[in-house]
Q: What sequence folds into this?
């Protein structure tokens, strides 16, 4: 894809996040996938945003490149995130995608992520500062400095696996107490049963990491 295609995606993300009252905190656009960390305000606002965004962008790419058919492989995958324990870790996970993919050596070198806004003070008008991000410092400069310092720490391999696993399987990313709260409030399991259990039940769908 050309740089203009990335710009179109972000422009529509800005439009739909405002339309459906969804706060966008973190993002990265890769050549074959995207990651978004969102907070929906009304119920299903994130689903409405993603459905509109996926549909618009597929039509845009097909028209621009004179192609037909689907653009994405299946439905988007998402999970509910325990913000207190995982928000900043997931933020780093997302913005480090270009580094793990060996595209750049540091996230600051990649133009199509929220790192330039969260860490460097670049203006990305549709981004909203999450309370976990705001807790990093008393002012914007202190927060950006503290945020950059987080990237000096390596995300443990088991945490990377955990994030990928729960996202791909649409489970919940959080501790046992958080998962229990989700189960009580939603009436659905937040994690798989032990081996040998009933695996037919639908997973908890409403989420904030897409």
A:
């Amino acid at each position: 894809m050309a740089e203009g295609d990335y710009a179109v995606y972000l422009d529509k993300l800005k439009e739909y996040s405002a339309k459906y009252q969804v706060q966008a905190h973190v993002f990265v656009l890769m050549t074959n996938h995207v990651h978004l960390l969102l907070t929906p305000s009304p119920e299903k606002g994130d689903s409405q945003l993603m459905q509109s965004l996926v549909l618009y962008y597929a039509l845009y790419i097909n028209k621009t490149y004179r192609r037909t058919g689907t653009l994405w492989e299946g439905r988007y995958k998402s999970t509910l995130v325990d913000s207190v324990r995982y928000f900043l870790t997931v933020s780093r996970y997302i913005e480090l995608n270009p580094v793990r993919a060996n595209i750049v050596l540091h996230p600051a070198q990649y133009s199509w992520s929220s790192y330039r806004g969260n860490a460097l003070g670049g203006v990305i008008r549709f981004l909203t500062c999450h309370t976990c991000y705001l807790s990093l410092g008393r002012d914007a400069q202190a927060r950006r400095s503290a945020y950059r310092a987080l990237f000096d720490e390596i995300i443990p391999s088991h945490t990377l696996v955990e994030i990928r696993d729960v996202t791909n399987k649409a489970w919940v990313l959080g501790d046992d107490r958080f998962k229990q709260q989700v189960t009580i409030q939603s009436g659905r399991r937040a994690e798989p049963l032990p081996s040998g259990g009933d695996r037919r039940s639908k997973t908890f769908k409403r989420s904030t990491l897409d």
User: Anything to note?
Assistant: The domain at 3-150 is CATH 3.30.70.1290 (Alpha-Beta Plaits). Confidence is low (pLDDT under 50) at residues 196-207. The chain has one domain: 3-150.
